[in-house]
UniProtKB/TrEMBL annotation:
Name recorded for this polypeptide: Chaperone protein DnaJ
Cofactor: Zn(2+)
Domain annotation J: ranges: 6-71
Gene Ontology, cellular component aspect: cytoplasm
Principal cellular location given in the protein's record: cytoplasm
Domain notes: The J domain is necessary and sufficient to stimulate DnaK ATPase activity. Zinc center 1 plays an important role in the autonomous, DnaK-independent chaperone activity of DnaJ. Zinc center 2 is essential for interaction with DnaK and for DnaJ activity.
Keywords tagged on the record: Chaperone, Cytoplasm, DNA replication, Metal-binding, Repeat, Stress response, Zinc, Zinc-finger
Organism for this UniProt entry: Acetobacter persici
Gene: dnaJ
PANTHER family registered for this protein in UniProt: CHAPERONE PROTEIN DNAJ, DNAJ HOMOLOG 1, MITOCHONDRIAL-RELATED
Residue ranges annotated for the CR-type domain, each copy included: 138-217
Amino acid sequence: MATKIDYYEILEVTRTVSSDELKKAYRKLAMKYHPDRNPGDEAAEAKFKEINQAYDVLKDEQKRAAYDRFGHAAFENGGGGGPGGFDFNGFGGGGGLGDIFEQMFGDMMGGRRGGGRARTGNDIQTHVEITLEEAFTGVKKDVKIITRVACDSCHGTGSNAGESGVETCPSCHGAGKVRAQQGFFVVERPCPTCHGAGRVVKDPCKACHGEGTVEKERTLAVQIPAGVEDGTRIRITGEGESGGQGVPAGDLYVHVSVSEHGLFQRDGANIYCRVPLRMGQAALGTEIEVPVIDGNRAKVKIPAGTQTGAHFRLRGKGFSVLRSSARGDMYIQVTVETPQHLNKRQKELLEEFEKEAGENVKGSPEHTGFFARVRDFFENKG
């Protein structure tokens, strides 16, 4: 059996990585190995699947804790590992320890409370990148996936003769699972004859070799809602791999990445925009026009004497809130820019200004206060 690669190694992070750092590492690798960027590269496609599998486990606190303690054994045979690789789910249909007691006492109490977990096709995952504007408005994106679908030749039956060539499994009588007594336990396992399908094929289809499914590339239109955040995973029920005749398809999980923007930084429902001001604008006061994420513009009045780090709030001009008509706020972050490459006249004016400002201690209270504390510091040292 091949050695399984450590999930932390796959994502190129340490075991102490924070959730934010983990997300950044995943996003970087997912973009690098995405099938759309590496058409026809099977190695990149396999790497992309490994990256998604590793991130799916490590981003979940409970799954990560189980993985840190038990490694890959925590998720073998359906998950829920225990010490030394012991897996409660190995006893049956993946229901865990509770199902063991159901299996022990179910017949005595008139049958189990409910059937085992329904069989479905495999889930698949893919990745899509959108702009900040698209995340604000919501967008429909076409995604390409390689998945297993029902075979056209046999219509998903797996038999050349269609339904007439498929029989109920003689071992499990169509149940797909068999029971066996092990001491005090009644254990259910997938039927070894039909491998859980409940049916056997006499004359296998040549196109799908009796599986009922074939691999095919599909393009799906995925609706991404307004307000979606970077790292969101969207589940599309029934768009995963086909499970074969009579078995529901699995689900498709779309991992969404939101690209960085040249003007705006998002924090939840709020948006921040950094605006540099000339020294004269900050000193004298001014009115500026700033862009808004929805494509409009807004005017902001800057009072005289504004300092670097000042914030101005524009209510309701921020980001969309998921599944809501509300919006967050927009914050203008001011930085005062020192002029460079001055001409002779500009230098003369600044020298005059500096001479005048030096005599006006009220004009620069922070500057005056700081150097007063410096003077006191050295006097106390002396």
